[in-house]
């Protein structure tokens, strides 16, 4: 446990928001829970879990039970220091002040955010608060941020052989560092931390 905290502090930069994207057909609740708890333990504030079939989202109570179990097993008496707030699409604006906030997503979520942002902009135009010429990248960013309640992911860990994020937050990850790992099944902490170390060492050019 001490090592995890020290590892997080030792990195040159730590992502604020990590997306865990599973492209495999058989997602593992236990392995995903371990990844979430490791994120919490090293000090990552926001975690998104995604699979392209929406299995985790449909069974989010099972995933949360596994996360609580892993907290007890991996963190022991320290687990009270690593609280996690579970949010769903009905509470996207209600991110509480806690150490880590978890969101479980499926393919419709990213598309729904863009649709809602477009509707909000149309309402502003109809109310003559904006004109159609005001719509640009920054405006859409602001609209999406107010609808989503999460910062954009700094890092996506993609698990599986498919060379695609399969619909994970299509707008939000245009500047995100994406690191591919063979599988989330039986993943070790060493593999996870190696990916964080790779992220910390990379130079992000923001599309330039």
UniProtKB/TrEMBL annotation:
Keywords carried by this UniProt record: Angiogenesis, Developmental protein, Differentiation, Endoplasmic reticulum, Glycoprotein, Lipid metabolism, Magnesium, Membrane, Receptor, Transferase, Transmembrane, Transmembrane helix
Broad enzyme group: transferase
GO molecular function, one term: ditrans,polycis-polyprenyl diphosphate synthase [(2E,6E)-farnesyl diphosphate specific] activity
Primary location recorded for the protein, binned into one broad class: endoplasmic reticulum
Needed cofactors: Mg(2+)
Subcellular location: Endoplasmic reticulum membrane
Coiled-coil stretches: none
Pathway this chain belongs to: Lipid metabolism; Protein modification; protein glycosylation
A Pfam entry, by short name: Prenyltransf
CC annotations in GO: dehydrodolichyl diphosphate synthase complex; endoplasmic reticulum membrane
Listed EC numbers: 2.5.1.87
InterPro entries with a match to the protein in the record: Nus1/NgBR, UPP_synth-like, UPP_synth-like_sf
Membrane association type: Multi-pass membrane protein
Tree of life domain: Eukaryota
UniProt catalytic activity: n isopentenyl diphosphate + (2E,6E)-farnesyl diphosphate = a di-trans,poly-cis-polyprenyl diphosphate + n diphosphate
BP GO annotations: angiogenesis; cell differentiation; lipid metabolic process; regulation of intracellular cholesterol transport
Subunit structure: The active dehydrodolichyl diphosphate synthase complex is a heterotetramer composed of a dimer of heterodimer of DHDDS and NUS1. Interacts with NPC2.
Chain's role: With DHDDS, forms the dehydrodolichyl diphosphate synthase (DDS) complex, an essential component of the dolichol monophosphate (Dol-P) biosynthetic machinery. Both subunits contribute to enzymatic activity, i.e. condensation of multiple copies of isopentenyl pyrophosphate (IPP) to farnesyl pyrophosphate (FPP) to produce dehydrodolichyl diphosphate (Dedol-PP), a precursor of dolichol phosphate which is utilized as a sugar carrier in protein glycosylation in the endoplasmic reticulum (ER). Synthesizes long-chain polyprenols, mostly of C95 and C100 chain length.
Record's protein name: Dehydrodolichyl diphosphate synthase complex subunit NUS1
Origin organism lineage: Eukaryota, Metazoa, Chordata, Craniata, Vertebrata
Gene: Nus1
């Amino acid at each position: 446990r001490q090592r995890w905290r020290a590892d997080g502090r030792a990195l040159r930069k730590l992502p604020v928001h990590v997306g865990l994207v599973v492209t495999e057909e058989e997602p593992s609740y236990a392995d995903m829970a371990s990844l979430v708890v490791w994120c919490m333990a090293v000090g990552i504030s926001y975690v998104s879990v995604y699979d392209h079939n929406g299995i985790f989202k449909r069974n989010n109570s099972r995933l949360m039970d596994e996360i609580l179990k892993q907290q007890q097993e991996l963190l022991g008496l320290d687990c009270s220091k690593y609280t996690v707030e579970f949010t769903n699409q009905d509470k996207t604006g209600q991110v509480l002040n806690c150490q880590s906030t978890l969101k479980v997503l499926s393919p419709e979520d990213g598309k729904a955010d863009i649709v809602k942002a477009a509707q909000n902009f149309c309402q502003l135009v109809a109310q003559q608060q904006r004109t159609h010429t005001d719509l640009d990248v920054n405006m859409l960013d602001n609209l999406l941020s107010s609808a989503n309640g999460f910062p954009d992911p700094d890092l996506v860990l993609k698990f599986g052989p498919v060379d695609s994020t399969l619909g994970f937050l299509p707008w939000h990850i245009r500047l995100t560092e994406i690191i591919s790992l063979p599988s989330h099944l039986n993943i070790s902490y060493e593999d996870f931390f190696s990916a964080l170390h790779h992220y910390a060492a990379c130079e992000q050019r923001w599309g330039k």
